């Protein structure tokens, strides 16, 4: 199985790499980072203390680790934390946000010899996967090289579950090295059991992302930020976060329709991929709107639409919003994280595609903490602010519900501590 898989992976890389290289170069994005992923730039760990290696795919998974890393270092100063990512944006955010990590690097290409090189360099006591990153060779080698393998914040999406069931015997074998599974919901647990995972290995710990811990911003902080970007204090602010191609056109149409009745509303768009800023700017300018970018904004420079073309600032802009729209939901992308606006007590709006956050989306709508819109007409109605009291109530509900859902970090830390203690007693 593993020999055939490795051959197919090699073949796929040879066919795909050249096209991917030119595509990313043209788009201005990071490439495949071959030297890093072959381990040629990885420094060998020289210390002999306890060591944990976490693997998080991209930005969302990375950000879910912030509080957990802080709690680990708070309780265990001598533990060394290493973190790998798959994407360039995830790598950039991890280096900026996960300051407790001794090193941040790209995950190895999934060949046995490459993966072994990383484990020989790090010698982790515990290997921790975040959410649903199941690379067969990485799992197999981790089971042999680390004292224990743990999945945290585990999630099995509808799409992944359909694929995994087609190859159930292979998936069961691939997942065998994982010692414990901490998943987000009971549905995720049931899906793992259906794939052949032993019941005593699985626990529902909740979603790490609900333990979001963002800076509390005072009214004077928000007023200062508004001044810095040229935003009048009397304006109503809609922040559309992590938007994907196809969504901005709908948002701009709804915004333009609402402006015919209400002019004191402005729109801030944060594309999921900042390199799309040019494209979004042209769309907005084509609607006859005054457009600025966060990187160019200044006091006294008026705008109707602001494009957030920087990384790591979306949460702050959610804090100054009156309504937060969560992207990836008007197009079939499965939605984005709705918890950051909820942390700041903002009314949360999203479209019909939220399957990546299905449990949270359903719970927020059920509890009156969010509203799901079907398209342009619904969205225009929200942007008119005709039900402002209801929106404010929705914002309060979102903060209260988020507080009620928290606790996954503590549960996860307890399991990590038990596995590390077992590793220590064996060694």
SSE map:
Blueprint: H1 2-27, H2 34-37, E1 51-56, H3 59-64, H4 66-75, E2 80-85, H5 88-97, E3 103-106, H6 112-122, E4 126-130, H7 136-145, E5 148-154, H8 158-166, H9 168-175, E6 180-183, H10 186-194, E7 202-204, H11 219-228, E8 236-243, H12 247-259, E9 265-271, H13 277-286, E10 291-293, E11 305-307, H14 314-319, E12 323-326, H15 339-343, E13 348-350, H16 358-366, E14 370-372, H17 376-383, H18 388-405, H19 408-426
Parallel strand pairs: 1-2, 1-4, 2-3, 4-5, 5-6, 6-7, 8-9, 8-12, 9-11, 10-11, 12-13, 13-14
Helix pairs in contact: 4-19, 6-7, 12-17
Structural description of this entry:
- This protein has 19 helices and 14 strands.
- The protein is of the alpha/beta class.
- The protein has two domains: 27-206 and 407-426, 3-Deoxy-D-manno-octulosonic-acid transferase, N-terminal domain (Rossmann fold), CATH 3.40.50; 219-405, Rossmann fold (3-Layer(aba) Sandwich).
- Strands 3-2-1-4-5-6-7 form a seven-stranded parallel beta sheet, sandwiched between helices. A seven-stranded parallel beta sheet has the order 10-11-9-8-12-13-14.
- Helix 4 (66-75) crosses helix 19 (408-426) and helix 6 packs parallel to helix 7 (136-145).
- The radius of gyration is 23 Å and the shape is globular.
- The model has no long low-confidence stretch (mean pLDDT 92).
Question: What are the key terms here?
Answer:
single chain, 427 residues, alpha/beta, Rossmann fold, 2 domains, 7-stranded parallel sheet, 19 helices, 14 strands, globular
């Amino acid at each position: 199985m593993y020999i055939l898989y490795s051959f197919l992976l090699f073949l796929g890389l040879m066919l795909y790499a050249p096209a991917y290289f030119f595509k990313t170069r043209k788009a201005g994005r990071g490439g495949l980072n071959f030297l890093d992923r072959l381990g040629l730039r990885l420094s060998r760990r020289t210390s002999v203390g306890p060591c944990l290696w976490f693997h998080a795919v991209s930005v969302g998974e990375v950000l879910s680790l912030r509080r957990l890393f802080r709690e680990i270092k708070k309780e265990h100063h001598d533990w060394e934390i290493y973190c790998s990512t798959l994407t360039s944006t995830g790598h950039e955010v991890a280096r900026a946000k996960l300051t407790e990590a001794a090193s941040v690097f790209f995950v190895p290409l999934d060949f046995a010899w490459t993966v072994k090189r990383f484990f020989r360099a790090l010698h982790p006591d515990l290997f921790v996967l975040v959410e649903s990153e199941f690379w067969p060779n990485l799992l197999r080698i981790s089971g042999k090289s680390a004292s224990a393998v743990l999945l945290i914040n585990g999630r099995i999406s509808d799409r992944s579950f359909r694929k995994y069931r087609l190859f159930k015997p292979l998936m069961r074998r691939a997942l065998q090295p994982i010692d414990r599974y901490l998943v987000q919901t009971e549905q995720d647990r049931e899906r793992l059991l259906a794939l052949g995972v032993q019941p005593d290995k699985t626990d529902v710990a909740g979603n790490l992302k609900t333990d979001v811990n963002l800076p509390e911003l005072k009214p004077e902080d928000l007023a200062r930020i508004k001044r810095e970007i040229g935003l009048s204090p009397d304006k109503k602010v809609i922040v559309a976060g992590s938007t994907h191609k196809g969504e901005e056109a709908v948002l701009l149409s709804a915004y333009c329709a609402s402006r015919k009745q209400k002019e004191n509303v402005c729109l801030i768009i944060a594309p999921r991929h900042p390199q799309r800023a040019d494209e979004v700017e042209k769309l907005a300018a084509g609607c006859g709107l005054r457009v600025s970018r966060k990187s160019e904004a200044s006091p006294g420079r008026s705008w109707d639409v602001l494009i957030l073309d920087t990384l790591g600032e979306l949460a702050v802009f959610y804090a100054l919003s009156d309504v937060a729209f969560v992207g990836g939901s008007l197009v079939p992308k499965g939605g984005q994280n709705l918890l950051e606006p909820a942390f700041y007590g903002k009314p949360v709006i999203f479209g019909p595609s939220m399957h990546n956050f299905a449990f949270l989306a359903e719970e927020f709508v059920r509890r009156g903490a969010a509203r799901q819109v079907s398209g342009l007409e619904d969205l225009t109605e929200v942007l008119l602010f005709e039900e402002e009291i209801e929106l404010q109530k929705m914002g309060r509900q979102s903060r209260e519900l988020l507080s009620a859902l928290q606790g996954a970090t503590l549960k996860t830390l307890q399991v990590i501590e038990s596995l590390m203690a077992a590793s220590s007693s064996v060694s």
